[in-house]
Amino acid sequence: MGFSLAWRLFKHEARRGELSIILSAIILSVAAVLSLSLFSERLQGALNERSAEFIAADRQLSSRKPIDLEWLNQAKSQNLEVAEQVSTRSMVFANEQLQLVDLRAVSQTYPLKGNIKLSAEPFAIGEAVAEVPSIHEAWLDSRLFQVLNLQIGDEVEIGDAVFTATRVLTEIPDAGFSVFNTDPMVLINMDALAKTNVTGPGSRVNYKAYFVGTDDALDTFYSSIKNELQREYHRWLSVDDDESPIGESVARAEQFFLLASLLAIVLACVAIGVAAQRYAQRHFDPVAIMKTLGASTATIRKVYLYQIIFIALLGIVLGTVIGFAVQQVVVSALAGTVDVSLQVWYWRPLMIAIFTGSICALLFCLYPLLGLFAIPPLRVLRRDMASTLKSRGGQYLTSGLAIFGLMYAYSQNLKVSAIMFISGIVLVVLLLGATYGLIALGRILGQGRMSAAQLAWARIKRRALDNSVQLISFALTLMLLLIVLVMRNDIVKQWQEQLPEGTANYFMINVTDAQKDKLAEHFANNLVISDDLYPVTRGRFAKINDVVLRSEVTKEDEDSTNERRAGMGREANLTWSTQLQQANEVVAGEWHDAWSYENSKLGEGIYPVSVEVEAAKRMRIGLGDVLSFNIGSEIVSVQVTSLRQVNWQTMQPNFFFVLHPDAMSRFTPTYITSFFLPEERKPELAQLLRPFPNVTLFDVDARINQIRSIIDQVSAAVEFILVLVLVAGALVLIAQVQASMDERQRELAILRTLGAQGGLIRRSVIYEFLIIGSVAGFMAAMANEISLYLLQSQVFKMSTSVHYEYWVVAPLTGAIVVGLLGAASCRALLQLNTSTLLRKVL
Amino acid sequence: MIQVTNITKTVTTDNGPLQILQPISFTVTEGQSVAIVGASGSGKSTLLGLLAGLDTVTEGTIKLDGASLETMDEEARAQIRGQKVGFIFQAFMLVPSLTALENVMLPAEINGSNNPKALAVDALEKVGLSHRASHYPNQLSGGEQQRVAIARAFITQPKILFADEPTGNLDADNSLKVEQLLFDLNQQAGTTLVLVTHDNELAQRCDRQLIMSAGQLREASMQAATERAS
Predict the structure, then answer these.
(1) What backbone torsions phi and psi does residue A61 show, to the nearest 5 degrees?
(2) CA-CA to A384 of 20 to 30 Å: which in A729, A780, A842, B210?
(3) Nearest by Cα to B117 from A1, A537, A842
(4) Cα-only R_g, chain B
(5) Which residue did the predictor score with more confidence, A548 or A243?
(6) Tally of CB atoms within 10 A around A412
(7) Please, where are the H alpha helices in chain B?
């Protein structure tokens, strides 16, 4: 009986549109979660593909000794594509001149991801090629043509072998980005390496193997060789390990998508919670009737559980279809900007969406249903009797646990889930306090003649608890929208600040003291703005405190693929200044601008140094440690007096070690600087640098453009996610207002019957919604601030700030949006004639 | 059929306990029709709720066809209601999302009858609404809704029928029709009828009239005799 009755009730209610609120809540939740997570999964796939270019593969094994051939064969047998690279530093001889280069010998399949780019002449824009040098060829960096005075077709000697410089090498995918320690690159064929004899005993050689394949295959391969990898020789890299600005931007965007999807889940939960409450209330009478007619609680339970299952199933099916369509539309709309493939299908988002739909539907309906089951049959005689299930604690607890469970299940990230959850709870507590405060205020204001405003206050006062639930749902929705909006603004802003227009795209090193002023003048005459000049001297680590440097510090030296570790090897680039560089922040100790040798407490011959905090951690040095550098033939001793946090994402020269200028007064430095040259002026480069033949130029324009294009793509995607969440939020708000208007129908009908003017009723409803909207907006702004602070500082690792503007914007927007929605639904109700209205509710 | 012995009902209010029913005792025999009349707030509906097992007594006993309601839990009382009791309410109390036919079927389904649909068609026929079988309650007039409710009340052939102001929401014309239908069907089925009403004329059609006043119940004939004596 339970099933057939449930099916009949479901069929009729669905046909008569009585399930629209709860059904649309479930559809909304499934559609929002599916479209958001499917889109973000596809986007992440596309971005990962893009990031993979920076390691030229999906995974990379870097090693200080030759990579076991057996491993490579094993990888091939496990259906992975494999490529190899051997790199070393070597000398290139041409035109009677020698130059130290970064020699890279690559296998035929290199690169597995990304492209080698070549140009016909130095410093020109490169074009992608799908080949590697033949065994007689060498492809050389533009700088080598400049330094060695080479022409295309000239011969160069590398070790014992002679090669023809056939092309200009402008880019390889995993070149890394480092101004220091990077010698100009030369690319040769792996099969030609042996004849050079440059990788003999004693030479420092780095071996890389590249792998491409499915995640599963890659993971299987990694687990099979994992135990054989030696920490001191091998390093396994995946795209996630990309610590470059791009890697961080992508990681941050991924976190944003995750956050947006989590918020969509919470939005969905709120929507379903509100709808389920309403659904249960509407069934109070039918349950009382059935009980009166002799139905057992078990029968009623069965009828309504079946009902919820039918509703959830229909909601999930429709939600899946709609979510998929929305996502498809978004991806097609973005096709020009973001390279997202529609061919790939991901099962996870679908699973999550179905899971969310069912869990939301069942858990959020649970408490309203329990209330429904507890309706006394006596209600048939006494209509004011409500459920005998009193405590709302149970409801809050189940709802809270369900939301937290879903957030955790989805994100697998306890921190993000906890932050969102805790700020939600803070908001709920604030709101409960505020509701009761409002009621007290209403009691004072609501006395006297019945004006529209007083009617509104009276309603708010009378329905305190219902209103608190409503207020909480409005505020939660507004808070979630605010979080997504502000996060998006802050992320995009910080990305844009990271690479503003006019970001230096060329670096110059080896500028001598004598050239400093001349260079500045020359650049100014040519209308090129150059950055500050930073003095640089190479220093070799001698000791930390009294301990001669242990070998582990030197392991990572010359790792040119990673600018962060550059300078951490046997040699470091030292600069000196009393002025703290931009985007540097002292996090421990004191900056040494006020230090003077006369008043020094550091000891005889010891000067202050500021060390980058991460480098300090890696080298296990802290405040008070004394470092000795060997510069030329002299020893300079410095004591760590401050630790700095450095924003490595700015494209400006940054340093691990900044000494006090007094420490370096004996040495003649060279200088490093950077400048911006627009692309159309690129041909002027040679002429610009002609007076300074010794200066070495680094062209990072390509790299910057790469970063920019990725950031643009990610920003566009973030915008779309924002729009999706805003639309979902708006729909939730509409559903909430409609649900609460439903509750007001009875009252409106009575007021109308008693002859209240439409205007009075409408105004009173608008006032009520304005009050609720502005309070919800204000509370949302407060809770938003807390969650943003936690999210930005703990999860996104961004700088935090207070968003004062939203303290005004949120209550205003809340009041306007909720007020307008209320006015619209009220208008629809008032358009019915009074008897229809009465019939509807009585 | 109904045996009421010294029942009271006390509820808790903000100002302490409030006794709404003074000790009440009476018996209704099988097939008898009894009207409970009285002013609003006199406790009529409370008494009806107790008699029908919708609510529980504070003290005393109620036997419904031999079953002691006060010893039963809600589930057992629901079972008794399903098997032995029919209801008609002032507010009709039809399930809005079920059609007239399905509303009538409902008690038969709950009761596990073999062919609820055929029974319901038959019952609707009897109240003259077979042509409205597929209509929803809000598509029916008040009188029609109450006739559907009457069909629903009789579908399980209950031994006892409780009616709470069955004509309270109807105009004079519809009231008469519903009244007639109620008594006709009652007579045909030999059901015991307990009816709560304001309407003296309706009350007069019953075999007995009980008057409720400030929580106390008296036989109308006794009251009439008392009035005459005074």
Answers:
(1) -110, 120
(2) B210
(3) A1
(4) 18
(5) A548
(6) 10
(7) 44-51, 74-84, 100-111, 116-126, 142-154, 172-189, 200-204, 220-229
Query: How many other CB atoms are found less than 10 A from the CB of residue A545?
Result: 11
In three-state secondary structure terms, A599 is: coil
Q: Is A18 on the interface with B (CB under 8 A)?
A: yes
List Cβ neighbours of A215 (8 Å cut-off, separation of 6 or more). A58
Give Cα A735 distance to the centre of its chain.
30
Higher pLDDT, B24 or A707: B24
Quote the pTM value: 0.68
What contacts B206, CB < 8 A, 6 or more positions away? B33, B34, B35, B193, B195
Instruction: Report pLDDT digits (tens) over A703-750.
Output: 777 677 777 777 777 777 777 777 777 777 777 777 666 667 767 777
Pairwise CA distance, residues A18 & B101, whole Å = 20
Question: Is the pLDDT higher at A625 or at A329?
Answer: A625
Give chain B's count of helices (H) and strands (E). Answer: 8, 10
Distance from CA of B180 to the nearest CA of A (A): 23
Residue A133: half-sphere exposure toward Cβ, Cα within 13 Å: 28
| CA–CA–CA angle A486, A491, A492 (5° rounding) | 100
Q: Is the pLDDT of residue A565 over 50?
A: no
Q: Is A4 on the interface with B (CB under 8 A)?
A: yes
In chain B, whose CA is at the least distance from the CA of A297?
B75
CATH of domain B31-42+79-229: 3.40.50.300
Give yes or no for residue A342 having a pLDDT over 60.
no
Instruction: Using pLDDT thresholds of 50, 70 and 90, give the confidence band for residue B221.
Output: low
> To the nearest whole angstrom, how far is the Cα of B170 from the nearest Cα of chain A?
14
pLDDT in tens, A617-666: 877 888 888 888 888 788 888 999 999 988 766 667 788 889 998 888 88
In this predicted structure, what is the pLDDT of residue A36?
78
CA dihedral A205, A206, A207, A209 (to 10 degrees): -170
What ipTM score was computed for the predicted complex, to two decimals?
Answer: 0.89
Interhelix angle A347-373/A20-52, nearest 10 degrees: 150
Gap between the terminal Cα atoms of chain B:
34
Determine the pLDDT at residue A243. Answer: 57
The DSSP letter of residue B42 is S
**Alpha-carbon gap, residue B148 to B107, rounded angstroms:** 13
Nearest Cβ partner for A378 among B54, B80, B98: B54
Q: Which residues of A touch B111 (CB under 8 A)?
A: 294
Please give the residue that has the higher pLDDT: either A680 or A815: A815
- φ, ψ for residue A638 (rounded to 5)? -135, 150
> What is the pLDDT at residue A139?
94
Q: A382 vs B45: CB contact, 8 Å cut-off? A: yes
Question: Confidence class of residue A345 from pLDDT cuts 50, 70 and 90?
Answer: low
| Alpha-carbon gap: A377 to the closest alpha carbon of chain B (Å) | 6
pLDDT at A283: 87
Could A285 and B98 be called an inter-chain contact, meaning their C-beta atoms sit closer than 8 Å? no
Contact A581, A612 (CB under 8 A): no
> How close does chain B come to A292, measured CA to CA in Å?
7
Q: B45, B47, B48, B54: best mutation site toward chain A, by most A Cβ within 10 Å?
A: B54
pLDDT class of A788 with cuts at 50, 70, 90:
confident
* A293 interface with B at CB cutoff 8 Å: yes
Give B-chain residues touching A293 at CB under 8 angstroms. 81-82, 87, 106-107, 110, 152
The CA distance from A9 to the nearest CA of chain B, in Å, is 6
Domain boundaries, chain A: 1-53+243-412, 54-242, 430-502+700-842, 506-699
Instruction: Give B3's pLDDT tier (boundaries 50, 70, 90).
Output: very high
Domain boundaries, chain B: 31-42+79-229
User: What is the predicted pLDDT for the residue at A242?
Assistant: 57
